[in-house]
Amino acid sequence: MATTTARRAARASAPLLAVLIGLAAGAARAADAGAPSPADLDAFFHFAAGTSEQLDPALRTSLAAGVVDFRAVLAGRRPPHAKADDSDPIPAEGGTKSYAGDGYDVIIVKSLARVAGIDGYMYGAVLLLGTKLALGSDPSVREVSFYPAASLLKLLGG
Q1: What is the dihedral of CA 83, 76, 119, 99, to 10 degrees?
Q2: 158/151 Cα distance (integer angstroms)
């Protein structure tokens, strides 16, 4: 009797274990996949060719992580490197959320909007470079677009 119960419990937990292992493996692949090359960093930040290769490796790694996080948000995923800033107030209008990375912040912009009578959201990412990585009046990269509600739901996998 105890053996049958143990087998049933093992069979019941096996799918859950497989899902958890799959999620962990997927998260690891997502964090490592698509790390930009120096040439890709040059193109993303509009640097002169070869500039990224001249950067301190630690700073280049921080910039690359910021780019990966920015691109993840545009693809409808959470940033794999930056951590949620839980000091932000609870979102009252759509769900804009900040994430802090190593020398940068990524802001997921999600704001209720109506464009030409269509209800939806302004959604996208802002990569805000901190003083460790850049100085200037607006050291940021932004890409925010309007999505009808159903389109954003599809992008976000819901």
Answers
A1: 10
A2: 10
CA distance 47 to 81: 23
Residue 143: φ, ψ to 5° = -145, 105
Pair 134, 124: CB distance under 8 Å: no
120-141 CB burial, b ≥16 within 10 A, e <16? bbbbbbbbbbbeebbeeeeeeb
pLDDT digits (tens, 9 = 90+) for 18-60: 333 333 333 333 444 578 999 999 999 999 999 999 999 999 9
DSSP string, 42-89: HHHHTPPTTTGGGS-HHHHHHHHHHHHHHHHHHTT---SSSEE-TTSP
Q: Which residues pair with 90 in a beta bridge?
A: none
